[in-house]
Amino acid sequence: MSGGYCLPCERWREATVVVAVVEVNSGPGRVVEACLPHAREYAAYPLAPQWLRDELAALDAPEG
């Protein structure tokens, strides 16, 4: 986790995670980042990628 621009908040946040990867036909794609509350909200959608749910579960898992 690192700081970045949260698209739903429309501002820089201290901690963000990647919530989507935008692929294009030519040129570089890009990633969409969101703060943890917005990432969790996005992960609840049925079409959200499984890797996002897995990443958030790993962040929420107790260390040990």
Structure description:
- This protein has 64 residues and is of the alpha+beta class.
- It has one domain (4-60).
- Helices cover 30% and strands 36% of the residues.
- The chain is built from two helices and three strands.
- It has helices at residues 36-43, 50-60, and strands at residues 2-6, 11-22, 30-35.
- A three-stranded antiparallel β-sheet has the order 1-2-3.
- Helix 1 (36-43) crosses helix 2.
- It is globular.
Summarize the SSE layout with pairings.
Layout (H helix, E strand, L loop, with lengths): L1 E5 L4 E12 L7 E6 H8 L6 H11 L4
Antiparallel strand pairs: 1-2, 2-3
Number of distinct helices: 2
Question: What characterizes the major β-sheet?
Answer: 3 strands, antiparallel
Percent range for helical residues?
A: 25-40%
In terms of DSSP E residues, the strand content is 35-45%
What's the pLDDT, averaged over the residues?
A: 91
Radius of gyration: 13 Å
In total, the number of domains comes to 1
Structural class: alpha+beta
List keywords for this structure.
alpha+beta, 3-stranded antiparallel β-sheet, single chain, 64 residues
Can I get a quick summary?
The protein is α+β, with helices and mostly antiparallel strands. It has 2 helices and 3 strands; from the N terminus they run E-E-E-H-H.
